[in-house]
């Protein structure tokens, strides 16, 4: 197994950027892979490109336009507004069916061609919007499936799986990239960099986590 190289599933948001720098501390060579699934806010991909260029990370954008066709939702359709609050009895309309499964599968194919075993993704079961494809049981299941499907040993790393947003901010702080994550990333479902719109679920989670982090660790 090649323990010197890794690939990060990279969106240019808070979580994946924290994971990118986490990987850079642990692996000699890190490659970032982003996906164009015709998401509403192409700024996401521009942000990912800018971060990779600035911090000397090899970056690839893969075309996954079919996902947009199969799974219409508020992140891919201009006529569907993002839920301001997550529904109690159903998944929020920002959930894209199959997205993490497809992302990790395509990254797995990409990784094998490059002789890379380590894949890093920023999913978290501890502090998320109820997305089933962010759960640890799903990641472990897919890791086994990819191993069997390609007769190749993958290790899917999830540095954020068991920590909440405040602890994710603390990780960025410990890695020395707090300002990078705070100012240069795009997490907002409405396509606004940094602190975002402050109204969508992603912004509420991000900003609430930062407030807790600030109170707990910076004062």
UniProtKB/TrEMBL annotation:
Transmembrane spans: none
EC number(s) stated in the UniProt entry for this protein: 6.3.4.20
Cofactor: Zn(2+)
Binding site residues for ATP: 10-20
SUPFAM superfamilies to which the protein is assigned, alphabetical: Adenine nucleotide alpha hydrolases-like
Cofactor note: Binds 1 zinc ion per subunit.
UniProt-annotated binding residues for Zn(2+): 188, 197, 200, 203
Pathway: Purine metabolism; 7-cyano-7-deazaguanine biosynthesis
Record's keyword terms, sorted: ATP-binding, Ligase, Metal-binding, Nucleotide-binding, Queuosine biosynthesis, Zinc
Major enzyme class: ligase
Catalyzed chemical reaction(s): 7-carboxy-7-carbaguanine + NH4(+) + 2 ATP = 7-cyano-7-carbaguanine + 2 AMP + 2 diphosphate + 2 H(+)
PANTHER family recorded: 7-CYANO-7-DEAZAGUANINE SYNTHASE
Description of how the protein assembles with itself and partners: Homodimer.
Family membership noted in the UniProt record: Belongs to the QueC family.
Functional note: Catalyzes the ATP-dependent conversion of 7-carboxy-7-deazaguanine (CDG) to 7-cyano-7-deazaguanine (preQ(0)).
Name listed for the protein in its UniProt record: 7-cyano-7-deazaguanine synthase
Organism this protein belongs to: Clostridium oceanicum
Source species taxonomy: Bacteria, Bacillati, Bacillota, Clostridia, Eubacteriales
